[in-house]
Amino acid sequence: MAKTKVQYEFPMHCQSEILYEYMASAEGLSEWFADDVIEKGDDFFFSWNGGPGEKATLIRYKPESFVRYRWEEDEGSKNYFEMTIVIDDITDDLALIVTDFCEPGDEVENQLYWENLIENLRLKLGAT
């Protein structure tokens, strides 16, 4: 069954350059997304609680703008997860837009998962 595309917007109170480093580098991602992240070229290996980990490939990016990853299990599909920095032209407010794919019926659980992750990110950035 095809996964459902979901999108969330999170207001962030930080500089875009710093936020991008937390989205696009192994060091930054290991601060809030996973317990440990190892980067080998375009491949990122995420592990939690000392487990074996999961591989995601960086498939698109634009410095200080967005990153798009594809989990190894989603190779050959159009599924990905993307984090995009958006700055309002009028107010200069910064938001992080997360695009993800989840199993149908898991939308609420997926949203809670991302809300928890982004709260961890805000704490690390001091952007609460």
Automatic annotation (TrEMBL):
One Pfam family cited in the UniProt record for this chain: START_2
| UniProt cross-references to SUPFAM superfamilies, sorted A to Z | Bet v1-like
Query: Start and end of every START-like domain?
Result: 3-127
Q: By what name is this protein known?
A: START-like domain-containing protein
Source species of the chain: Kaistella chaponensis
